[in-house]
Write a structure and sequence with these properties.
- The protein contains five helices and two strands.
- The protein has 93 residues and is of the alpha+beta class.
- The protein has a single domain, classed as Arc Repressor Mutant, subunit A (Orthogonal Bundle).
- A hairpin with a 2-residue loop joins strand 1 (55-60) and strand 2 (63-68).
- Helix 2 (10-21) crosses helix 3 (28-35) and helix 3 (28-35) packs across helix 4 (39-51).
Length: 93
C-alpha cells in the first residue's frame, strides 16, 4: 500500500497523532483503546509505520514501546494541524 492511500484512512492518522501526543510510554494496546480499533489492526498499522520509517520500537519487558522518528513527528504535526482545521477547534493540542 502506498503512503497516500495509507494516510487517507482514519485509523493510521489517529494512531500517529496518538503516539505524538502521549508523553508516557506508548504501546499498541494503548493505541487500540484510544482509537477504538482491534489490537491486530493496530499492530498492522504500526508495522506499516515501521516499514515507512515513521516509527521505531524498543523492547521494554514484554511491551514494545513506540517512538516516532523525525519523519514521523513531521507527519504527526502536519496531521494534527489538518485535523484541528477540519474540526474548527483546538482538540489535538
Amino acid at each position: 500500500m502506498n503512503e497516500k492511500s495509507f494516510f487517507l484512512k482514519e485509523k493510521p492518522v489517529l494512531a500517529l497523532v496518538t503516539i505524538r501526543q502521549n508523553r508516557e510510554d506508548v504501546y499498541c494496546s494503548l493505541i487500540s483503546k484510544k482509537i477504538d480499533t482491534t489490537y491486530a489492526h493496530t499492530v498492522k498499522i504500526i508495522s506499516c509505520f515501521e516499514d515507512k520509517g515513521i516509527v521505531e520500537t524498543e523492547k521494554k519487558g514484554r511491551k514494545k514501546i513506540l517512538m516516532l522518528t523525525e519523519k514521523g513527528e513531521q507527519y504527526a504535526d502536519n496531521f494534527m494541524e489538518i485535523l484541528e482545521k477540519l474540526e474548527g477547534g483546538d482538540k489535538w493540542n
